[in-house]
Write a structure and sequence with these properties.
There is one protein chain. 24% of the residues lie in helices and 35% in strands. The protein is of the alpha+beta class. The N and C termini lie far apart (90 Å).
Length: 386
């Protein structure tokens, strides 16, 4: 065995390994730092929907039977008339005045017909009492046609209702109730009977509509699609709609094409807005909220009024005096030392909140401060009070 050649081969292998290691590290560095990451990337399908491909509302009038004495009262005429009409269709003639029941309730049944409906597909329905029934617990919905806005029947509903709660009462009048008892749900309680014609597969273009109107977001959606396809197929029509022409190689394969589009990532833009709910004291602010140079002073003025009732009695053995109550009122006013802070122009919402928290501003005071900053013209955001 040649020891010299063995040593040379080992040295050669070590140099080759080091070069390979350096090359791998160089490639990883390019991959890590060369790819632009989107900090707030959102999929297109979470921002848009395809125009024309939406759900449709359905509604119907039905009856719940099998209630344990908690149905509509005997004075509810439309419930009695509906029951009499149903019995008549079943070959039983009875006068509404002869019906005395408490286990039937009239209800409104609502559902939503999904996009691309197919016959036989089951959908959920919501059932809500329209009479004076006290509970729908344990009831069963009878066959109910569900109509669209055009008056056509698109589904039929029937089944046992689930209210997700209960009610129990004792002889002494004690009662325990959980959740709302006059509305419930029937999972997969309706079956689609009529399909809506749709020529989605053979379309030459589709329109993506954003859920919130914003020109910048619409433009970014179009740019992202065009960059992915390598050609100018997407054109923003306005702040909501983006028209996308179907490439020739994707015609007839719309499902694959839409799936590719909706999984593209973009960074949506948003309007600088401050939402204030004065009823609950809730404030929600976006990250784009900016303010100009402004000085804010905060101090609490406390006014306290105390009334103490003292007893005044006459002198001992006095014949004309009487015991009376004499109120004594004491008023005190105290004001905390005001804190004045100055914020430079263009500060972000993060610096604004930190500065306001430093002077101990409560949520209620913060609402007034934001209104004052907006009135001074220093708040560069839409202030919306709900």
């Amino acid at each position: 065995m040649d020891v010299t050649n063995f040593g040379l081969d080992m040295a050669f292998l070590e140099r080759t390994y080091m070069k390979l290691r350096v090359n791998i590290l160089f490639v990883l560095t390019i991959i890590i730092f060369g790819i632009p990451f989107l900090s707030n990337a959102v999929k297109i399908k979470d921002l848009t929907y395809i125009e024309g491909q939406r759900g449709n509302k359905l509604i119907g009038y039905g009856m719940i039977v099998g209630l344990n004495g908690t149905g509509d009262k005997q004075g509810t005429k439309f419930t009695i008339q509906s029951l009499a009409s149903m019995l008549k269709r079943s070959g039983i003639l009875v006068s509404p005045d002869e019906i005395k029941v408490k286990n039937v309730a009239a209800v409104i049944v609502t559902a939503e017909l999904p996009p691309f409906p197919r016959g036989g597909v089951k959908i959920d329905v919501l059932v809500s009492s329209i009479g004076d029934a006290t509970s729908l617990q344990g009831g069963t919905l009878l066959l109910t046609p569900l109509k669209g806005a055009d008056g056509n029947i698109y589904a039929v509903a029937q089944g046992a209702i689930s209210i997700g709660g209960f009610s129990a009462s004792g002889k002494g009048g004690d009662q325990v109730q959980k959740n709302h008892l006059n509305a419930g749900k029937i999972p997969e309680g309706a079956t689609i009977e009529r399909e809506i014609p749709n020529d989605f597969i053979n379309k030459d273009n589709i329109t993506l509509s954003t859920r919130n109107s914003d020109f910048t977001t619409a433009l970014r959606i179009a740019d992202s699609i065009n960059k992915y396809l390598g050609e100018q197929n997407a054109v923003p029509l306005d702040g909501v709609n983006v028209k996308v022409n179907i490439p020739q190689n994707y015609k007839g394969d719309m499902v694959r094409f839409v799936s590719l589009l909706e999984n593209l990532d973009i960074e949506p833009d948003s309007v600088a807005k401050v939402i204030i709910d004065e009823r609950t004291g809730t404030i929600i602010m976006g990250e784009n909220v900016k303010i100009s140079s402004v000085a804010i002073s905060h101090g609490n003025l406390t006014i306290e009024v105390k009334t103490q009732h003292n007893i005044s009695q006459p002198a001992p053995f006095s014949k004309k005096g009487e015991t009376v109550v004499v109120p004594e009122t004491e008023t005190s006013i105290s004001e905390e030392k005001g804190n004045l802070i100055f914020l430079e122009g263009g500060v972000s919402i993060k610096e604004l909140v930190r500065a306001l928290n430093s002077i101990g501003v409560s949520t209620r005071d913060l609402i007034v401060i934001f209104q004052g900053i907006k009135a001074a013209g220093a708040l560069h955001a839409e202030l919306e009070i709900i």
